[in-house]
Amino acid sequence: MSNRNKNHRFIFYYGIIGVISLVAIVFINTSAFAYGLGLSAYPLSNVSKRGIITTELTEFLSDETGVGLQARYLRKINPSLALEANGGVSNTNRSKRIGLAANFDVYNIGPHFLLRPYYERANEFFTVKHIFGVSPILTLSYAQEPLIGYPFVSLPISAALDSDTHSYEMRYVLSAGINRKFFFYPDNKMLLNLEVNINLKNSLSAFFIGVSTQL
Questions:
Q1: What integer pLDDT is reported at residue 202 of this predicted model?
Q2: Residue 42, Cα to own-chain centre: how many angstroms?
Q3: CATH fold for the domain made of 3-214
Q4: pTM (two decimals)
């Protein structure tokens, strides 16, 4: 990649970060959270050793409407394992959510099958909840040079423990989307992320659009 293309890549990406920072000021007294799968559905064989940073815009579609911004950092530990940390801001009552996850590449011959166990600590409607879950992910690949994409589908299942009532509820979500090389920068390591979550039980429906870059 030429130095000119590299400069365009970083100017574009950090311009996005600047816009996100400005919007975050609007939400400064609201929430921190992370929803969706992000790049967990992206084959680990394509992740660089330094990892991937993702920024996403979220549109809530279910029990309360609103918008949010979130960020993720995915770091590959070995060819079959990656770790993720995430967080963000929102103008909804689903507040102060931070999370950690591990991605296990279980099967990677042809279709990729991954398992994503995760933990989240969330303030949801003024109640602290500890959420333990697992997302089985099936992802495929298609090639249409110079654009390469990875569509995926998942059924995240979790238990949300209420710290006030000491009770729990089971949550089920249907998730589908695609990670693909960015339209305007097909020759570098930037990705476009699109995802939709459909609430099946005790969860939320939302739409995500994001941009990722390899470090």
A1: 86
A2: 10
A3: Lipocalin (2.40.128)
A4: 0.76
